[in-house]
Backbone:
């Protein structure tokens, strides 16, 4: 029963039914990659796992615990969703990375040293911390957004095409980081069109009905 | 004010109508095609104002609490409709929210000014209550519509930003705090501008009216100061009220932003 579980889920968006009786099981330390044609609802599935889109039917649990019992903000802090398009608030990269540590659900202070180490692993120079976050390129933004998510030390990570704007070198860095997270016991749900990185991580592909 | 106003005869009005004729001839000469609209607008001015004149005379004459409140509620309903219609987006319950906010804010500020500050006897004298509420509503609806417009824009166009914060563990309140503050700020700008330039750039209509009616300018100024402060209070509380209401309607108890509840209105 450990890991992230979605059982017998029915999902609708704008009155259109996307899935019925859908199950997704991702153990801690495992990687699942939902696959379906574009527009079939992969993003909606990730949003449902993060509690951003309501389930018509079905149950959602992390380690046997439902979002309602821990409160949705705490759920989302443990099951972090990384949207395809990186989004930042006005302010520097440093301020953006520190922002979630100001929420009521935060545990501990903003770990600056860890942030610097992660940015470097992803090929971003130290100066980026003082850069205005909205001036980042899409590729830089994707990496900074991943760092922002990893700093929360989530139990599960939901990735929506995190490599779409990355060059091979950056993808390699990202893969290495995620491999470590997997070994540390994070459950990884990774939506991507690129079959190579997920194959190297030993991901289980989940074919979605379309 | 006992000198009173010089009454205008029907002939005087006809004379003034010739002023509109100037506008009409301009339109004709420059082929602006505004003649018809100008005529309709002029007729509306006459009909609406004469209508409200008779209505006010009737309400003033009978001095009845029920009649007064009937008029107040119609005014508030019209103002809330206008406030919601001016916004480029809306949501289910927006009209109710604007109405509720304006009822609370409008009645509380108006009656606290008439009863406590001015000390009108009896408290429900329509001659004071109706014009003051009218000013509160006029300013309140501008503030409310600007605040709603800003907030709904942040939740609709800025949806990704709000959901980014939610997905990092923010509560709905934490994720919406900046847009809420920005909306209230936007709603307050017109009244703040009006307060900064009053007397320098513009003479407010009420003050002008009192001076025309023969009041001592310093007396008129005192009224105007009270009114400006009343409008500032009403607008700020109104903006806060309506944005909090919208916040409650657009986020559910699972801290989800229900963007599908926002509808763009074709303009």
Residues:
């Amino acid at each position: 029963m450990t890991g992230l579980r979605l059982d017998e889920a029915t999902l609708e968006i704008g009155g259109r039914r996307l899935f019925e009786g859908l199950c997704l099981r991702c153990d801690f330390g495992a990687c699942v990659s939902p696959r379906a044609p574009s527009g079939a609802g992969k993003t909606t599935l990730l949003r449902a796992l993060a509690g951003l889109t309501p389930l018509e039917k079905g149950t959602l649990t992390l380690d046997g615990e439902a979002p309602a019992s821990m409160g949705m903000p705490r759920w989302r802090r443990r099951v972090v969703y990384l949207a395809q398009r990186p989004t930042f608030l006005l302010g520097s990269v440093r301020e953006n990375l520190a922002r979630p540590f100001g929420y009521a659900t935060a545990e501990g202070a903003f770990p600056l040293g860890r942030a610097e180490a992660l940015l470097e692993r992803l090929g971003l120079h130290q100066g980026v911390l003082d850069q205005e976050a909205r001036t980042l390129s899409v590729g830089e933004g994707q990496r900074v957004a991943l760092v922002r998510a990893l700093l929360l030390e989530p139990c599960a990570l939901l990735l929506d095409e995190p490599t779409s704007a990355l060059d091979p070198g950056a993808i390699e860095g990202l893969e290495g980081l995620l491999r470590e997270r997997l070994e540390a016991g994070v459950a990884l749900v990774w939506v991507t069109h690129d079959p190579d990185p997920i194959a190297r991580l030993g991901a289980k592909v989940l074919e979605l009905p379309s | 004010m006992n000198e009173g106003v010089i009454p205008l005869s029907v002939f005087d009005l006809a004379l003034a109508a010739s002023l509109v004729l100037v506008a009409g001839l301009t339109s004709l000469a420059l082929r602006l095609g505004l003649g018809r609209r100008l005529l309709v607008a002029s007729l509306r001015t006459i009909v609406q104002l004469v209508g409200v004149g008779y209505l006010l005379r009737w309400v003033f004459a009978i001095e009845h609490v029920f009649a007064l409140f009937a008029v107040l509620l119609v005014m508030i309903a019209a103002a809330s409709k206008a406030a919601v219609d001016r916004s480029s987006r809306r949501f289910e319950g927006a009209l109710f929210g604007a109405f509720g906010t304006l009822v609370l804010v409008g009645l509380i500020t108006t009656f606290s000014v008439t009863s406590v500050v001015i000390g009108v006897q009896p408290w429900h004298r329509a001659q004071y209550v109706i014009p003051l509420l009218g000013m509160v509503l006029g300013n309140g609806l501008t503030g409310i519509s600007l605040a709603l417009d800003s907030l709904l824009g942040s939740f609709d166009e800025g949806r990704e930003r709000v959901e980014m914060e939610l997905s990092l563990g923010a509560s709905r309140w934490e994720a919406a705090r900046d847009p809420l503050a920005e909306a209230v700020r936007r709603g307050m700008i017109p009244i703040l501008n009006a307060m900064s330039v009053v007397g320098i750039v513009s003479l407010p209509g009420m003050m002008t009216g009192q001076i025309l009616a023969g009041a001592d300018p310093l007396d008129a100024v005192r009224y105007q100061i009270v009114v400006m402060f009343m409008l500032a209070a009403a607008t700020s509380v109104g903006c806060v009220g309506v944005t909090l209401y919208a916040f409650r309607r657009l986020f559910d108890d699972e801290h989800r932003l229900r963007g599908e509840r926002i509808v763009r209105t074709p303009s």
The two ends of chain B are 46 Å apart (CA to CA). Chain B has two domains: 1-62, 64-264.
